[in-house]
Design goal:
The structure is a homodimer. Chain A is α/β, with parallel strands linked by helices. Chain A has eight helices and nine strands. In chain A, the strands form two sheets. In chain A, strands 5-6-4-3-7-8-9 form a seven-stranded mixed sheet. In chain A, strands 1-2 form a two-stranded antiparallel sheet. In chain A, α1 (about 5-20) packs across α4. At the A-B interface, α1, α5, β8, β9 and α8 of A face α1, α5, β8, β9 and α8 of B. Bound molecules: nicotinamide-adenine-dinucleotide (2 copies). One nicotinamide-adenine-dinucleotide sits at the interface of chains B and A.
Chain lengths: ~200, ~200
């Protein structure tokens, strides 16, 4: 019942609010949020009203309360287990970051095809071979996977993930994945934010 | 004169269209675009109409033409020089990806503070010390920078970038950067797409 556009904005709010929380900032106004997130303050108030969050005149919104509220809407108040395929540069960056953030979407398993990497550890997790995918997905109750392998390997990896029971994929490989209707794929591109920066130069 | 919301969507269109182009697909309908990008086809048609792009009934839009049109709006039809600070896991992943994509926003210089990394090469570029920032920005006509250093180093790096003449920053460090009014910062977070995936589980 919350529109797709608002759902996609919620993590953006959350990131900014988490940073405020880390700096012990107690309240934030829609003006501040608007400036920080490049959104119109009226849009901010409309978004937050979607889930009953009304700021208080002269005070604004309470940071901690907003953080908890948004996390519960995004179901981030419970840990969601995620697996990562591809322990290369990107895979390492993502696993370290994930552990550092103590994200409630927690990477709990990492896979790679390279025999020199299998068995090594990243963030206290042993890199596993793809053969162990289906078992690990069951044992660790994982429904979401991150693909960080080269483009030409991505479709085959996606097929194995779907066969293993994964229903949500965050794909970094520069290729359009083909998946069954019940599987959701989000394509990530770190450089897209770069492209929209250029427009404003 | 194109709204912020549409500008932010354009790189998303571009990524998908580039993949179609790479697969030699000639035309695409607003339905297909809508399904692939999780947008309402009516929204797609409205966005593309913003810059005079009207699909043809029964045919849809021409992929190559749309790609060129969007690139020119985002000023991606000319090469825009970018520098990267932080040659760690994320920095390596981004530089390789940038070179592979032959992105018109091209990383042309990489900096790091680690003496063991300075002087080494990534993608044919020698990693430079931060002391060379101002000169390199001038010589290579760079106005945009990517920050991929740890959170506690990010603000100091941003200060040096601003002092060197950078006016656009793509920030990956999990911290809110403080910059002058004329400098634009976009915060990137690869895990935000992950969070909006969880909502749909
Ligand atoms: N979307 C973005 O913004 C973005 C940014 C950077 C990188 N990328 C993409 O992410 C991917 C990874 O980039 P990287 O720099 O980490 O590359 P990398 O070469 O450092 O790492 C790739 C890893 O995948 C593993 N691998 C290859 N085939 C596999 C398979 N079939 N099953 C399991 N593991 C396999 C390799 O052994 C390696 O460890 C590439 O596709 C790259 O283009 C995307
Ligand atoms: N936003 C996201 O989605 C996301 C994802 C992954 C990583 N990150 C963040 O990106 C950053 C880099 O991650 P990583 O895994 O590559 O870390 P890393 O430790 O592998 O690399 C950091 C690099 O920065 C260099 N560095 C440190 N201080 C510096 C300074 N003052 N000037 C220049 N260079 C300096 C280091 O020498 C190192 O090469 C971290 O802040 C991490 O939290 C963000």
């Amino acid at each position: 019942k919350i529109s797709e556009a608002v759902v996609r904005r919620l993590p953006v709010y959350l990131r900014y609010l988490n940073n405020l929380k880390a700096m012990n900032v107690r309240t934030v106004s829609s003006q501040q949020l608007g400036e920080a997130l490049d959104l119109n303050p009226a849009q901010i108030r409309k978004d937050l009203a979607c889930f009953g969050e009304f700021g208080r005149k002269g005070i604004g919104y309470e940071v901690n309360y907003l953080v908890e509220k948004i996390k519960s809407i995004l179901k981030l108040d419970k840990q969601v287990n995620v697996l990562l395929v591809g322990a290369g540069h990107l895979g390492h960056a993502i696993s370290n970051y994930n552990a550092y953030l103590k994200d409630s979407m927690r990477i709990v398993a990492i896979f790679d095809a390279d025999p020199h990497k299998i068995g090594k550890k990243i963030v206290n997790m042993m890199i596993q071979p793809l053969e162990e995918l289906a078992n690990t997905v069951k044992e660790k109750n994982i429904r979401i996977a991150i693909i960080a392998v080269p483009a030409d390997a991505a479709q085959a990896v996606a097929d194995r993930l779907v066969a293993a029971g994964i229903t949500g994929i965050l794909n970094f490989a520069p290729t359009n994945l083909r998946v069954p209707e019940n599987v959701r794929v989000h394509d990530a591109d770190v450089t897209m934010e770069l492209h929209s920066l250029a427009y404003y130069l």
